[in-house]
Design goal:
Layout: H1 16-31, E1 54-58, E2 61-65, H2 70-77, E3 80-81, E4 84-85, H3 89-104
Antiparallel strand pairs: 1-2, 3-4
């Protein structure tokens, strides 16, 4: 068990921010060895991208399918080009970037190693 320690939040020799910084550093130091986090993937639910939608992993890649939410449709409907609502080019770039990032992630239910260390078999 740890012995309790008095950590003053007001010190006449130090300004308030300096005193709080000392308290945070002391608490952080005391807690640094308290718990070793195990970074595992928990496949509860896959978060859908607001434009891309749900990801389907195929043998030769991935596809995305979804329905635009009202909020997204409202944003797109404000961008009028030649009298028609058109998704802005930045939206296409963001969607392609997100699709590429998602393609690099493992499918739902497969774990990944976040530690950077090789696992022994």
């Amino acid at each position: 068990a740890l012995d309790p320690q008095w950590l003053p939040t007001i010190d006449p020799k130090t300004d308030a921010m300096g005193c709080m910084k000392d308290v945070v550093e002391c608490v952080s130091f005391k807690e640094s060895g308290a718990h070793q986090w195990k970074h595992d993937f928990f496949p509860w639910v896959e978060v859908a991208h607001p434009v891309l939608g749900k990801r389907e992993v195929l043998q030769k890649g991935s596809t995305f399918e979804g329905v635009l939410r009202k909020e997204v449709r409202a944003l797109i409907s404000e961008h009028i080009v030649l009298g028609a609502a058109l998704m802005p080019g930045a939206g296409f770039l963001e969607a392609m970037s997100s699709a590429g990032a998602a393609a690099m992630e493992p499918p739902l239910g497969q774990s990944i190693d976040l530690s950077g260390k090789k696992r022994s078999a």
